[in-house]
Specification:
With about 325 residues, this protein is mainly alpha-helical. It is built from 13 helices and two strands. A two-stranded antiparallel sheet has the order 1-2. Its main location: secreted.
Length: about 325
C-alpha cells in the first residue's frame, strides 16, 4: 500500500509540474512576432508620448500593472468597469481616486485594434506599458513575456483583500507578497518604484517633523491640503533611481508602508544595500517585475482578448 501511495503521489506531482510548465510555456517574449509584429513598438511609442506629456504617468502605469497582478493575477481585471453582474476593482479603497493611466492604456489598445484586431490582450498591454514607462524615466528595462489573456469578470472583494495599503506593517506586507510567490527582497525592490510618483498629503504619518514639513509643501488649492499630492521622493521625484532608499535610511519615507521597510526589522539590510548600490536595486527591480508579471496569468483558451479594455466582449 505504501508503495502504491508513493506512486500515486509521484504521478500527481508530475501532473502538477506539467500543468505549471504548460502555463508558463504559453508566455513568451515573441508571442506576437507573427500575429502582430509591430505590437511592441506601437505600445512603446504610445507610452513614451504619454510620459513626455506627464512625467508622473510613468509611476501610474507601473502601479497599474502591480494593482492588476495582485488581484486575480495579471488579467487586466483592474481595467473593467462595473456592470449589472459585478462590482469591479476600480472603487476598492486602495484604487479609488488613486489608480490611473486607464486612458493611456485605452489609447494604445485602440491603435492595436486598428493594427491587428482582436490579437493583443489588455493584460499584455498593461505589462509592456509598465516596462516601457520605467525605461522612459531612466529606470531598468526587462524582457516581458507575453500571451496573457483578459479576464471576463472582476471583484471588489478580491481587490479589498489583496491590495496592500499605505498603512500596512512589515509583517503584513511580507506575508501578502509571499502569497503571490514574491520574496521579501522582491517586495522591497518593487516598493522602490516609489522613487517616482506622488501620494496624498494625508498619508504622511511617520516622522512627525517630516510629515509636517511635507504637508506645508503640499498644494493649498483644496481645503487643508490633505487631498492634494506630494512627491514620494522629495530629492529626485521624476527620475528612477535609488534615492527612495536613501530617504528611508534618513527616515524620510512619505508613507508608513515605505518607512516600515527601514524601521529595525528584517528588511533593513536590503534597504541599506539598495541605498548604497543603485545597480543592484535596478537589477532586482527588473527581476521582481518579471516575477510579478507571471502571477496566475490566463493563457491558451482561458478568458478572452478584449476589444475594449474596460468592458467584456
Amino acid at each position: 500500500m505504501a508503495s502504491r501511495g508513493l506512486i500515486l503521489l509521484t504521478f500527481s506531482l508530475s501532473l502538477l509540474l506539467l500543468s505549471c510548465s504548460s502555463t508558463q510555456a504559453q508566455l513568451s517574449a515573441n508571442f506576437y512576432s507573427s500575429t502582430c509584429p509591430n505590437a511592441l513598438s506601437t505600445i512603446r511609442s504610445g507610452i513614451r508620448t504619454a510620459v513626455q506629456r506627464e512625467r508622473r504617468m510613468a509611476a501610474s502605469l507601473i502601479r497599474l500593472h502591480f494593482h492588476d497582478c495582485f488581484v486575480q493575477g495579471c488579467d487586466a481585471s483592474v481595467l473593467l468597469d462595473d456592470t449589472s453582474s459585478f462590482t469591479g476593482e476600480k472603487t476598492a479603497r486602495n484604487n479609488r481616486n488613486s489608480v490611473r493611466g486607464f486612458n493611456v492604456i485605452d489609447a494604445v489598445k485602440s491603435q492595436l485594434e486598428t493594427l491587428c484586431p482582436g490579437v493583443v490582450s489588455c493584460a499584455d498591454v498593461v505589462a509592456v506599458a509598465a516596462r516601457d514607462a520605467s525605461a522612459a524615466v531612466g529606470g531598468p528595462s526587462w524582457a516581458v513575456t507575453l500571451g496573457r489573456r483578459d479576464s471576463t469578470s472582476a471583484t471588489l472583494a478580491a481587490a479589498e483583500a489583496n491590495l496592500p495599503s499605505f498603512n500596512d506593517g512589515l509583517d503584513r506586507l511580507v506575508n501578502l507578497f509571499g502569497t503571490k510567490g514574491l520574496s521579501a527582497r522582491d517586495m522591497v525592490a518593487l516598493s522602490g518604484s516609489h522613487t517616482i510618483g506622488q501620494a496624498r498629503c494625508a498619508t504622511s504619518n511617520i516622522d512627525a517633523n517630516f510629515a509636517t514639513t511635507r504637508r506645508r509643501q503640499c498644494p493649498s488649492a483644496a481645503g487643508d491640503g490633505n487631498d492634494n499630492l506630494a512627491p514620494l521622493d522629495l530629492v529626485t521625484p521624476n527620475s528612477f533611481d535609488n534615492n527612495y532608499f536613501r530617504n528611508l535610511v534618513q527616515r524620510r519615507g512619505l508613507l508608513q508602508s515605505d518607512q516600515v521597510l527601514f524601521s529595525g526589522g528584517s528588511t533593513d539590510g536590503i534597504v541599506n544595500e539598495y541605498s548604497r548600490n543603485g545597480r543592484v536595486f535596478s537589477s532586482d527591480f527588473a527581476a521582481a517585475m518579471v516575477r510579478m508579471g507571471s502571477i496566475e496569468p490566463l493563457t491558451g483558451s482561458q478568458g478572452q482578448v478584449r476589444r475594449v479594455c474596460s468592458v467584456v466582449n
